[in-house]
Protein backbone atom coordinates (compact mmCIF):
# COMPACT_ATOMS: atom_id res chain seq x y z
CA UNK A 1 0.00 0.00 0.00
CA UNK A 2 1.28 3.44 -0.77
CA UNK A 3 0.43 6.13 1.77
CA UNK A 4 1.43 8.84 -0.75
CA UNK A 5 -0.84 7.46 -3.42
CA UNK A 6 -3.78 7.28 -1.00
CA UNK A 7 -3.13 10.80 0.31
CA UNK A 8 -2.86 12.20 -3.21
CA UNK A 9 -6.03 10.33 -4.26
CA UNK A 10 -7.84 11.75 -1.25
CA UNK A 11 -6.64 15.30 -1.90
CA UNK A 12 -7.61 15.17 -5.60
CA UNK A 13 -10.96 13.69 -4.64
CA UNK A 14 -11.91 16.33 -2.06
CA UNK A 15 -10.59 19.12 -4.27
CA UNK A 16 -12.70 18.03 -7.26
CA UNK A 17 -15.74 16.31 -5.74
CA UNK A 18 -19.05 17.83 -6.75
CA UNK A 19 -22.68 17.35 -5.80
CA UNK A 20 -25.94 17.45 -7.78
CA UNK A 21 -25.65 21.21 -8.46
CA UNK A 22 -22.79 20.55 -10.89
CA UNK A 23 -24.45 17.66 -12.73
CA UNK A 24 -26.17 18.66 -15.95
CA UNK A 25 -26.43 15.28 -17.69
CA UNK A 26 -29.90 13.90 -16.80
CA UNK A 27 -28.59 10.32 -16.52
CA UNK A 28 -25.92 11.33 -14.01
CA UNK A 29 -28.14 13.76 -12.10
CA UNK A 30 -30.78 11.06 -11.57
CA UNK A 31 -28.14 8.48 -10.66
CA UNK A 32 -26.64 10.81 -8.07
CA UNK A 33 -29.83 12.07 -6.49
CA UNK A 34 -31.78 8.78 -6.55
CA UNK A 35 -29.03 6.22 -5.93
CA UNK A 36 -25.72 7.63 -4.70
CA UNK A 37 -27.01 10.21 -2.23
CA UNK A 38 -30.40 8.74 -1.41
CA UNK A 39 -30.92 5.58 0.60
CA UNK A 40 -34.59 5.14 -0.25
CA UNK A 41 -33.76 2.08 -2.40
CA UNK A 42 -31.93 0.36 0.49
CA UNK A 43 -33.04 -3.09 1.59
CA UNK A 44 -33.17 -4.67 5.01
CA UNK A 45 -29.54 -5.61 5.66
CA UNK A 46 -30.01 -6.54 9.34
CA UNK A 47 -29.25 -10.24 8.87
CA UNK A 48 -26.07 -9.57 6.88
CA UNK A 49 -24.97 -7.02 9.48
CA UNK A 50 -25.47 -9.55 12.24
CA UNK A 51 -23.32 -12.13 10.36
CA UNK A 52 -20.71 -9.42 9.86
CA UNK A 53 -20.74 -8.50 13.59
CA UNK A 54 -20.08 -12.14 14.49
CA UNK A 55 -17.09 -12.21 12.11
CA UNK A 56 -15.72 -9.09 13.81
CA UNK A 57 -15.66 -11.00 17.11
CA UNK A 58 -14.21 -14.24 15.71
CA UNK A 59 -10.62 -14.61 16.93
CA UNK A 60 -10.01 -18.00 15.26
CA UNK A 61 -7.05 -18.14 12.90
CA UNK A 62 -7.20 -19.14 9.25
CA UNK A 63 -4.37 -19.97 6.89
CA UNK A 64 -4.53 -17.62 3.91
CA UNK A 65 -3.46 -18.56 0.39
CA UNK A 66 -2.43 -15.17 -1.01
CA UNK A 67 -2.97 -14.81 -4.76
CA UNK A 68 -3.30 -11.03 -4.98
CA UNK A 69 -1.60 -7.94 -3.53
CA UNK A 70 -2.45 -9.02 0.03
CA UNK A 71 -3.46 -6.97 3.01
CA UNK A 72 -1.95 -3.56 3.72
CA UNK A 73 -2.35 -4.16 7.44
CA UNK A 74 -1.38 -7.79 7.99
CA UNK A 75 0.95 -9.63 5.61
CA UNK A 76 1.00 -12.86 7.64
CA UNK A 77 -0.44 -15.99 5.99
CA UNK A 78 -2.17 -16.81 9.28
CA UNK A 79 -4.85 -14.22 10.08
CA UNK A 80 -7.77 -14.07 12.46
CA UNK A 81 -11.23 -13.95 10.93
CA UNK A 82 -11.70 -10.75 12.89
CA UNK A 83 -8.70 -9.10 11.21
CA UNK A 84 -9.94 -10.07 7.73
CA UNK A 85 -13.40 -8.73 8.54
CA UNK A 86 -11.92 -5.47 9.86
CA UNK A 87 -9.43 -4.73 7.11
CA UNK A 88 -10.19 -6.63 3.89
CA UNK A 89 -13.88 -6.17 3.24
CA UNK A 90 -15.78 -3.49 1.36
CA UNK A 91 -17.24 -0.97 3.80
CA UNK A 92 -20.94 -1.56 4.36
CA UNK A 93 -21.72 1.97 3.15
CA UNK A 94 -20.34 1.04 -0.29
CA UNK A 95 -21.92 -2.44 -0.28
CA UNK A 96 -25.30 -0.76 0.29
CA UNK A 97 -24.59 1.60 -2.61
CA UNK A 98 -23.91 -1.39 -4.89
CA UNK A 99 -27.23 -2.89 -3.80
CA UNK A 100 -29.02 0.35 -4.71
CA UNK A 101 -27.32 0.41 -8.12
CA UNK A 102 -28.42 -3.17 -8.74
CA UNK A 103 -32.00 -2.37 -7.81
CA UNK A 104 -32.13 0.90 -9.75
CA UNK A 105 -30.79 -0.64 -12.96
CA UNK A 106 -32.58 -3.96 -12.40
CA UNK A 107 -29.28 -5.81 -12.77
CA UNK A 108 -29.46 -9.59 -13.31
CA UNK A 109 -26.00 -11.12 -13.81
CA UNK A 110 -23.19 -9.99 -11.54
CA UNK A 111 -19.56 -11.03 -11.37
CA UNK A 112 -17.56 -10.32 -8.21
CA UNK A 113 -13.80 -10.85 -8.37
CA UNK A 114 -12.68 -11.51 -4.78
CA UNK A 115 -15.25 -13.06 -2.43
CA UNK A 116 -13.28 -13.02 0.82
CA UNK A 117 -15.76 -13.75 3.66
CA UNK A 118 -18.73 -13.12 1.38
CA UNK A 119 -20.25 -10.10 3.13
CA UNK A 120 -20.23 -7.84 0.08
CA UNK A 121 -21.47 -10.83 -1.96
CA UNK A 122 -24.50 -11.06 0.32
CA UNK A 123 -25.31 -7.41 -0.33
CA UNK A 124 -25.08 -8.01 -4.09
CA UNK A 125 -27.29 -11.09 -3.74
CA UNK A 126 -29.91 -9.32 -1.62
CA UNK A 127 -31.79 -8.25 -4.74
CA UNK A 128 -33.26 -11.64 -5.46
CA UNK A 129 -33.59 -11.23 -9.23
CA UNK A 130 -29.80 -11.39 -9.49
CA UNK A 131 -27.44 -14.30 -10.02
CA UNK A 132 -23.99 -13.71 -8.54
CA UNK A 133 -20.83 -15.40 -9.77
CA UNK A 134 -18.17 -14.70 -7.16
CA UNK A 135 -14.51 -15.69 -7.66
CA UNK A 136 -12.13 -16.65 -4.85
CA UNK A 137 -8.85 -18.56 -4.68
CA UNK A 138 -8.25 -19.10 -0.96
CA UNK A 139 -9.93 -22.35 0.12
CA UNK A 140 -10.20 -21.53 3.84
CA UNK A 141 -11.79 -18.18 3.02
CA UNK A 142 -14.20 -19.90 0.62
CA UNK A 143 -15.30 -22.23 3.44
CA UNK A 144 -16.19 -19.29 5.69
CA UNK A 145 -18.00 -17.50 2.84
CA UNK A 146 -20.04 -20.65 2.10
CA UNK A 147 -21.10 -20.87 5.75
CA UNK A 148 -22.18 -17.22 5.63
CA UNK A 149 -24.21 -17.81 2.44
CA UNK A 150 -25.95 -20.75 4.13
CA UNK A 151 -26.69 -18.68 7.25
CA UNK A 152 -28.27 -15.98 5.09
CA UNK A 153 -30.06 -18.62 2.98
CA UNK A 154 -28.73 -16.94 -0.16
CA UNK A 155 -29.30 -19.37 -3.01
CA UNK A 156 -28.47 -17.05 -5.92
CA UNK A 157 -24.69 -17.16 -5.39
CA UNK A 158 -22.24 -19.43 -7.20
CA UNK A 159 -18.61 -19.45 -6.05
CA UNK A 160 -16.02 -20.05 -8.75
CA UNK A 161 -13.01 -21.46 -6.94
CA UNK A 162 -9.38 -21.09 -8.02
CA UNK A 163 -6.97 -18.49 -9.30
CA UNK A 164 -8.94 -15.76 -11.09
CA UNK A 165 -6.15 -15.47 -13.67
CA UNK A 166 -7.35 -18.85 -14.96
CA UNK A 167 -10.96 -19.10 -13.82
CA UNK A 168 -12.13 -15.70 -15.06
CA UNK A 169 -11.06 -16.04 -18.74
CA UNK A 170 -12.46 -19.56 -18.97
CA UNK A 171 -15.74 -18.48 -17.31
CA UNK A 172 -16.18 -15.60 -19.76
CA UNK A 173 -15.58 -18.01 -22.64
CA UNK A 174 -18.96 -19.41 -21.72
CA UNK A 175 -20.57 -16.32 -23.36
CA UNK A 176 -22.20 -14.75 -20.27
CA UNK A 177 -22.38 -10.99 -20.81
CA UNK A 178 -22.44 -9.60 -17.26
CA UNK A 179 -24.63 -6.62 -16.31
CA UNK A 180 -22.27 -5.69 -13.47
CA UNK A 181 -18.69 -6.61 -12.58
CA UNK A 182 -17.11 -5.77 -9.24
CA UNK A 183 -13.30 -5.99 -9.33
CA UNK A 184 -11.94 -6.44 -5.80
CA UNK A 185 -9.31 -9.17 -5.94
CA UNK A 186 -5.77 -8.69 -7.16
CA UNK A 187 -4.88 -5.04 -6.54
CA UNK A 188 -2.00 -4.87 -9.01
CA UNK A 189 -1.71 -2.88 -12.25
CA UNK A 190 -1.32 -5.72 -14.77
CA UNK A 191 -4.09 -8.05 -13.53
CA UNK A 192 -6.49 -5.10 -13.12
CA UNK A 193 -5.97 -4.13 -16.77
CA UNK A 194 -6.15 -7.76 -17.88
CA UNK A 195 -9.50 -8.26 -16.11
CA UNK A 196 -10.77 -4.99 -17.60
CA UNK A 197 -9.78 -6.10 -21.14
CA UNK A 198 -11.60 -9.39 -20.64
CA UNK A 199 -14.72 -7.52 -19.51
CA UNK A 200 -14.54 -5.23 -22.55
CA UNK A 201 -14.75 -8.26 -24.82
CA UNK A 202 -17.81 -9.54 -22.94
CA UNK A 203 -19.72 -6.39 -22.03
CA UNK A 204 -22.93 -4.96 -23.39
CA UNK A 205 -23.97 -1.32 -23.65
CA UNK A 206 -25.42 -1.20 -20.13
CA UNK A 207 -22.73 -3.16 -18.31
CA UNK A 208 -21.49 -1.41 -15.17
CA UNK A 209 -17.96 -2.03 -13.88
CA UNK A 210 -16.95 -1.11 -10.33
CA UNK A 211 -13.32 -1.18 -9.29
CA UNK A 212 -12.47 -1.14 -5.60
CA UNK A 213 -9.40 0.52 -4.05
CA UNK A 214 -8.62 2.68 -7.07
CA UNK A 215 -6.17 4.80 -5.05
CA UNK A 216 -4.82 2.01 -2.84
CA UNK A 217 -1.41 2.20 -4.51
CA UNK A 218 0.34 3.99 -7.34
CA UNK A 219 -0.22 0.89 -9.48
CA UNK A 220 -3.96 1.03 -8.88
CA UNK A 221 -4.18 4.79 -9.51
CA UNK A 222 -2.29 4.28 -12.80
CA UNK A 223 -4.58 1.40 -13.82
CA UNK A 224 -7.68 3.47 -12.93
CA UNK A 225 -6.50 6.47 -14.96
CA UNK A 226 -5.77 4.34 -18.05
CA UNK A 227 -9.13 2.60 -17.73
CA UNK A 228 -10.98 5.95 -17.49
CA UNK A 229 -9.16 7.14 -20.62
CA UNK A 230 -10.21 4.07 -22.60
CA UNK A 231 -12.38 5.17 -25.55
CA UNK A 232 -15.10 2.62 -24.75
CA UNK A 233 -15.64 4.13 -21.27
CA UNK A 234 -18.25 6.86 -21.62
CA UNK A 235 -18.70 7.83 -17.97
CA UNK A 236 -16.26 7.29 -15.11
CA UNK A 237 -17.07 8.22 -11.53
CA UNK A 238 -14.46 8.50 -8.79
CA UNK A 239 -15.86 7.98 -5.28
CA UNK A 240 -12.33 7.86 -3.87
CA UNK A 241 -12.65 4.36 -2.43
CA UNK A 242 -14.06 2.93 -5.65
CA UNK A 243 -14.60 3.87 -9.27
CA UNK A 244 -17.71 3.22 -11.33
CA UNK A 245 -17.64 2.87 -15.12
CA UNK A 246 -20.37 3.09 -17.74
CA UNK A 247 -20.08 2.29 -21.44
CA UNK A 248 -23.42 3.60 -22.68
CA UNK A 249 -22.93 4.82 -26.25
CA UNK A 250 -25.41 7.69 -25.87
CA UNK A 251 -23.35 9.41 -23.13
CA UNK A 252 -20.65 11.95 -24.02
CA UNK A 253 -17.35 10.90 -22.50
CA UNK A 254 -17.02 12.45 -19.01
CA UNK A 255 -15.17 11.92 -15.75
CA UNK A 256 -16.58 13.01 -12.37
CA UNK A 257 -15.57 13.03 -8.73
CA UNK A 258 -18.81 12.72 -6.78
CA UNK A 259 -19.30 13.53 -3.10
CA UNK A 260 -20.40 10.45 -1.23
C1 LIG B 1 -10.20 -7.41 -0.77
S1 LIG B 1 -10.65 -9.10 -0.66
C2 LIG B 1 -12.29 -9.14 -1.33
C3 LIG B 1 -13.29 -8.52 -0.45
C4 LIG B 1 -14.74 -8.75 -0.84
N1 LIG B 1 -15.01 -8.38 -2.21
C5 LIG B 1 -15.61 -7.94 0.07
O1 LIG B 1 -15.87 -6.79 -0.24
O2 LIG B 1 -16.01 -8.44 1.11
C6 LIG B 1 -9.74 -9.80 -1.98
C7 LIG B 1 -9.96 -11.30 -2.13
O3 LIG B 1 -9.51 -11.66 -3.43
C8 LIG B 1 -8.85 -12.90 -3.36
N2 LIG B 1 -7.90 -12.94 -4.48
C9 LIG B 1 -6.91 -12.05 -4.74
N3 LIG B 1 -6.26 -12.40 -5.85
C10 LIG B 1 -6.83 -13.54 -6.32
C11 LIG B 1 -6.61 -14.38 -7.45
N4 LIG B 1 -5.66 -14.12 -8.32
N5 LIG B 1 -7.41 -15.46 -7.59
C12 LIG B 1 -8.40 -15.73 -6.69
N6 LIG B 1 -8.68 -14.98 -5.62
C13 LIG B 1 -7.89 -13.88 -5.43
C14 LIG B 1 -8.17 -12.91 -2.00
O4 LIG B 1 -7.97 -14.25 -1.57
C15 LIG B 1 -9.16 -12.14 -1.14
O5 LIG B 1 -10.04 -13.00 -0.45
What is the topology?
Elements: H1 3-16, H2 26-36, H3 46-57, E1 61-63, E2 78-80, H4 81-87, H5 92-104, E3 109-113, H6 119-125, E4 131-136, H7 139-151, E5 157-161, H8 164-172, E6 180-183, H9 189-202, E7 208-212, H10 218-229, E8 235-238, E9 242-246, E10 254-257
Parallel strand pairs: 3-4, 3-6, 4-5, 6-7, 8-10
Antiparallel strand pairs: 1-2, 7-9, 8-9
Helix pairs in contact: 3-4, 5-6, 8-9, 9-10
Helix segment tally: 10
Low-confidence stretches: none
How does the helix and strand content classify structurally?
Answer: alpha/beta
Largest sheet: 8 strands, mixed
Which CATH first-tier class would you pick? Alpha Beta
* Largest sheet strand order: 5-4-3-6-7-9-8-10
What is the mean predicted local confidence, pLDDT? 94
Q: Which bin fits the share of residues in helices?
A: 40-55%
Protein model, in words:
This protein is an alpha/beta fold. It has a single domain (3-48, 90-257), classed as Rossmann fold (3-Layer(aba) Sandwich). Helices cover 43% and strands 17% of the residues. The protein contains ten helices and ten strands. An eight-stranded mixed sheet has the order 5-4-3-6-7-9-8-10, with helices on both faces. Helix 8 runs parallel beside helix 9 (189-202) and helix 9 (189-202) packs parallel to helix 10. The longest helix has 14 residues, at 3-16. The radius of gyration is 17 Å and the shape is globular. S-adenosylmethionine (SAM) is lined by residues 67-68, 88-90, 112, 114, 116, 119-120, 135-138, 141, 163-165, 184-186.
Amino acid sequence: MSFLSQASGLFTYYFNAVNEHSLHTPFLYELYTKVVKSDHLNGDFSEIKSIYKKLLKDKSKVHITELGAGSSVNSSTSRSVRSIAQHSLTSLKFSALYYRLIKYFNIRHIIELGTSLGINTLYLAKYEATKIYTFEGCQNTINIAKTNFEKAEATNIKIIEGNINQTFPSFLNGQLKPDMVYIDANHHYTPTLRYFDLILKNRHDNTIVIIDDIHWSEEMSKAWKEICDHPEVSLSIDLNRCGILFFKHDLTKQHFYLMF
